[in-house]
Amino acid sequence: MEQVRSLIDILELSTEEIDQLVDVGTKIINDPAAYAHKCDGRILATLFFEPSTRTRLSFESAMLSLGGQVLGFSEASSSSAAKGESVADTVRTVSCYSDIIAMRHPKEGAPLVAAQHSLVPVINAGDGGHNHPTQTLTDLLTIHHEKGRFENLTVGFCGDLKFGRTVHSLISAMSRYKGTKIVLVSPEELKLPSYVKKEVLKKNDIPYVQTTDLEAVMPDLDILYMTRVQRERFFNEEDYLRLKDSYILTPDKLRSAREDLSILHPLPRVNEISVAVDKDPRAAYFRQVRYGRYIRMALIMKLLGID
Fold first, then answer.
1. Burial level of 28, CB count in 10 A (0-12/13-18/19+)?
2. SS3 category, 53
3. β-bridge mates for residue 226, sequence order
4. 132 contacts: CB under 8 Å, gap ≥ 6
5. Residue range 225-262, pLDDT digits in tens
6. Are 145 and 26 in contact (CB under 8 A)?
7. Going edge to edge, which strands form the sheet with 208-211?
8. Contact 122, 101 (CB under 8 A)
9. Which of 208, 243, 284, 301 could cross-link 187 (Cys pair, CB 3.0–4.6 Å)?
10. What's the pLDDT at 229?
11. How confident is the model at residue 127 (pLDDT cuts 50, 70, 90)?
12. What residues pair up with 210 in beta bridges, in sequence order?
């Protein structure tokens, strides 16, 4: 059986391939009609073993926008997994009905197992706390669209840096570009794991700053990537209540920020960005959602070998 190419981890893509995907994504933004029939007759299967709104609908919207069709399920209970079928068998079956698969699964490594048994490309749409490569591609297209480049940017990450898979993936991706500086803003309890610092930042000689004070570093940032401080990660309620408000982004906290700052967030938002910030032209998080559709269109075409 000929090995098809899947995407399980963002680091499987070279910087050249990311640049190419961003270039195609930009072309789609500028002329979506030119891509409306690129996937005529092709079928995307969405296998979502855990609930998702944005990612699943973004994949479906991407395939429909390319002229393709979509089938699948949105929770494990509506699939044969509820009867005990293995991921390998589910994917072997579904790959007989489709041309490409997008899969989300609560267990880390499940999409990799799927890719090993699939007749068609598999895209990891999130596996546990491990990987979410198409969110990282979305973040990268957003950064490129907002800034016009990947090099020489100071990127601040704020909130839950310990458990946030989107944070770990984007730090890995940005560490490959020249002149990247990373600023890490979090409570002590939710600091970036030491293995990410060692394997990514130190290994690639990326300068980084670690702090608990967002306002102190605000003037230095080109990009601010906000994440939710999650109540469930704290051992006691007191610590959570003490810390939660220090990481709510408000217009006041943006007073010292650069005019051309771009604020990103992987969403869903709870209360970590005040709705008053939504009107600020620097708030890029809903533009980011739109870019997610275009980069997934580019990725689907790439994995299907469509120019």
1. buried
2. coil
3. 158
4. 55, 124, 125, 126, 165, 166, 169
5. 999 876 766 677 887 787 777 689 999 999 999 999 99
6. yes
7. 208-211, 181-185, 154-158, 223-226, 262-264
8. yes
9. 243
10. 73
11. confident
12. 184
